Amino acid sequence: MRYLYNLISLVLFIFVLGFAFKNAEPVQIRYYLGFVWEAPLSLVLLATFALGLVFGLIACVSPLIKQRRKLIAIQRELKSLRTSSSVINSSASNTSSTSNT
17 to each of 12, 40, 64, how far by Cα in Å? Predict the structure, then answer.
C-alpha cells in the first residue's frame, strides 16, 4: 500500500511540474487602485488554489467546534447516567440481599 501511495505521489508531482513548465508565461492580475501583480500562470493558479483551501478550512472550523462541544456534553451526560445507574444497581442488590435473609 505504501508503494502505491508513493507511486501516485510521484505521478502527481511529475504532472504538476510539467504543468508549471508549460505555463511559465507571465500574466498580469489587476487589482483596485492600479495595483498590478505579474507572475507566472502556474504560480497564480497555485496561489488561487491555496487561498481556496484556506477559506474552505476556515469555513469548516466552526461546525467542527460545535460538534466537538456537543460530543463532550453527551459524553458527560453518559458518564453521569452510568454513575447513577451503578448507584441504583448497588442499592437494588443490597435491598434484594436483605429481603432474601
Answer: 9, 13, 35
* All residues at 6 or more sequence positions from 24 whose CB lies less than 8 Å from its CB, including other chains: 40, 41, 42
Q: What is the pLDDT of residues 24-65, one digit of tens each?
A: 899 998 988 889 989 998 889 889 999 999 999 999 998 999
User: In this structure, is residue 97 part of a structural domain?
Assistant: no
* Reported pTM: 0.57
Question: Residue 58 domain-assigned?
Answer: yes
Q: Which three cell numbers stand for residue 44?
A: 497564480
Is 70 a domain residue? yes
Count of CA atoms in the C-beta half-sphere (13 A) of 26 = 6
